Amino acid sequence: MIKVLIADDHHVVRRGLLFFLKTQNDIQVIGEAKNGKEAVELTAELQPDIVLMDLMMPVMDGIQATKQIKESYPQVEVLILTSFSDRDHVIPAIEAGAAGYQLKDIEPDELVTCIRQIMRGENTIHPHATTHLMKIRSQKEVPPHILNPLTPRELDVLVELTKGKRNREIASSLFVSEKTVKTHISNIFPKLFVQDRTQAVLYAVKYGLTESSGD
Q1: What is the CATH classification number for the domain harbouring 79?
Q2: 27, 1 in Cβ contact below 8 A?
Q3: Sign (positive/negative) of CA torsion 135, 136, 138, 143?
Q4: pLDDT for 158-189, tens place per residue?
Q5: Is the pLDDT of residue 129 over 80?
Q6: Helices 152-162 and 178-192, packing angle to 10 deg
Q7: Phi, psi (5° rounding) for residue 29?
Q8: Number of domains the chain contains
């Protein structure tokens, strides 16, 4: 079972999420929080797999709550579920450690897919959020990929990751086996000094690696 904690200050939103997620045979909602502070406290108490985190909440907002959760419980993943898609919310949320960023107009079935993706270690970032991430650039340091270059095929896989594709979908796009995709991903992470798909996507858009593809 995927243990989920819902954090949102609107009762109707929490009820709606609870009602739908309870219909899934592999997801269990183990708690609800009305603000970021409660989300942090319940994470410590209940140890969920994923926290569905709203951003604009009283007492403590979702960004600060995400940061505290990831600092104290790095194994717990946070999926942002918000109405805001501007860069002032997207970038701080991802930098705080969120594994995903989705908008509240998401279809219920797609939300469930996102939850399962995160449990498989896959990134799930809304296209509007990705647009803002693409604008991140840094000239203050030599990027790791300059000193330890990715192979052309590893770069192809990285570009596919930025599109939010799963291993099976990447394998189909690149006409390789899923096992080969997994091997490339396992080589990409240490080369870029990242630990997961979300960090790899952030790295790719930060340094413009997606612009190196033929797309």
Answers
A1: 3.40.50.2300
A2: yes
A3: negative
A4: 999 988 888 999 999 999 999 999 999 988 88
A5: no
A6: 90
A7: -80, 115
A8: 2
